Amino acid sequence: MPELVFFSGTMDCGKSTLALQIEHNRSARGLAGMIFTRDDRAGEGKLSSRLGLVTDAVEVEDGQDLYAYLVDHLSQGGRADYVIADEAQFLAPGQIDQLARVVDDLGLDVFAFGITTDFRSKLFPGSQRLVELADRIEVLQVEALCWCGARATHNARTVGGEMVVEGAQVVVGDVNQSAGDVGYEVLCRRHHRRRMTAASARAAALSPDVLPVASS
Predict the structure, then answer these.
(1) Is 14 flagged in the annotation as binding?
(2) 88 is in an annotated binding site
(3) DSSP assigned state of 57
(4) Distance (Å) of CA 54 to CA 49, 168, 190
(5) Is 12 annotated as a binding residue?
(6) Model's pTM, two decimal places?
(7) At which positions is ATP bound (predicted)?
(8) Which of 59, 87, 132, 138 is catalytic?
């Protein structure tokens, strides 16, 4: 039976690499996929991995009907044996419903990849809808690590190495950005709660057992 599968995890845990691997394995067997993405680090209309792999994709726009796009593609003689949706957290809830309809009405597997929560530990609307609708949720087993060595479970937005907790939910950036740039860092829950990034930990020269004073 076709499924809507949600592959979730923090940044830097290999979601896009797995998406590219699924695309490679299926295309090697003669299958053709439709790849959707949004706001990929490599630019518009790209699905990329931090390992340097990249492929073309359909850039999803605000208000775009993904089900109608697939139906139009198929009605014009195009082929789609499965669907990959990367950066699915940036999709609108209604677009997730459309992907579920692709599974139910067109009989295609849909593999969605995305992070679950934003830099404030709040659910992305697209990810929330995937949790509600997915036939199966897979947590990526390649664990990203916090600077302290613990398993990273939270995404932090940084400016100049300092964690920020205010701002728009979606600001495109990447891990390991230059100082002063908006970037992201994966942290364990303890250090996300303490707003302690690798840079701030080095600057404060604190041991992991010293509790920082929270700012009011």
Answers:
(1) yes
(2) yes
(3) -
(4) 6, 27, 34
(5) yes
(6) 0.76
(7) 9-16, 86-89
(8) 87
